[in-house]
Design brief:
The chain is α/β, with parallel strands linked by helices. The protein is built from twelve helices and eight strands. It is about 45% helix and about 15% strand. The structure holds adenosine-5'-triphosphate and magnesium ion.
């Protein structure tokens, strides 16, 4: 099961990715959670203290590792002899961080071009890494992506089973979903599934259903707006630990079951 989670900024990608990862791990899956968003928040819903996560050097900033594997120092002027197929099979083990329920977190960090020098070495390593871990590093890979599907996104989600596109009631996130869907088609992602989040009442639910139908996509989960999530955030405790039986967590459990039915059991 290789799932990427995308959507407009602030819709709930990180909450859903992290919580799903732990719920799947509790069922015995080996789960690798990949933080591919430069703002690097995935440790929070995973229940990994930010002090612990911030001690980890993100892959994109690990200059020695990048140079060792690609042969090119990041930021150097000449990327001509870059190794496009760096060895990556030990990276998740070596640089991943193990959190509650046994989920392993891999933090990619920011790859930004601009300024002096070329970031292609970092890019090359991260692309290779994501491509490779999708094949070998566990039963489930959940990747929390940058809002939209910018920069790394297009190339990296190639080969994933599904792109979960999170939307909230409101036209903007639906527009983003449409754009993401088109990008996904371009790169042959097999399925784009919609997850609605922050849904308040019947009217919101209807809005989402109609929008999803118009997009000709499938709605695989509906998560209510839930004040517990905000309280968990204020208390700096992962929502899954703060309010394990709250409506939003229950809904993410249902989403987990739906995904399991669809991918895990089918492929065994
Ligand atoms: N179901 C919900 N009910 C209430 N608040 C929610 C819910 N889901 C997410 N939130 C809140 O919305 C905010 C954004 O959530 P989250 O960080 O998961 O979104 P994101 O899509 O990853 O955002 P970004 O694009 O910034 O990475 C957080 O403050 C979170 O606590
Ligand atoms: Mg996020």
């Amino acid at each position: 099961m290789k799932i990427a989670v995308a959507g407009k900024g602030g819709v709930g990608k990180t909450l859903i990715s992290g919580t799903l990862a732990r719920l799947l791990a509790r069922e015995g899956f080996r789960v690798l959670a990949v933080d591919a968003d430069p703002s690097m928040n995935l440790a929070f819903p995973l229940g990994i203290p930010s002090e612990t996560a911030s001690k980890i050097t993100p892959i994109a900033e690990n200059k020695d590792l990048i140079e060792e594997r690609t042969g090119v120092k990041p930021g150097s002027a000449f990327g001509l002899f870059i190794n496009l197929n760096p060895t990556v099979d030990d990276i998740a083990q070596k640089y991943g961080l193990r959190g509650p329920d046994g989920v392993r977190l891999l933090i990619m960090g920011t790859v930004r071009s601009g300024g002096a020098g070329c970031m292609c070495a970092a890019n090359s390593l991260i692309r290779a890494l994501i491509r490779h871990i999708t094949l070998t590093e566990g039963d489930v890979i959940i990747m929390d992506m940058e809002a939209g599907l910018e920069h790394l996104g297009r190339a990296t989600v190639k080969g994933f089973n599904a792109l979960l596109c999170v939307v909230e009631p409101g036209a903007q996130s639906i527009e983003t979903a449409n754009r993401i869907r088109m990008l996904a088609e371009d790169i042959n992602v097999r399925e784009v599934l919609i997850v609605a989040n922050k849904v308040m009442g019947e009217e919101d639910a209807r809005f989402i259903e109609e929008s999803v139908k118009r997009m000709n996509l499938e709605l695989i989960g509906v998560i209510p707006f839930d004040p517990n999530i905000i309280r968990a955030d204020a208390a700096r405790v992962a929502p899954l630990d703060y309010a394990p039986s709250s409506p939003s967590i229950k809904a993410i459990e249902k989403l987990k079951d739906a995904l399991k039915l669809r991918y895990a059991e089918r492929e065994v």
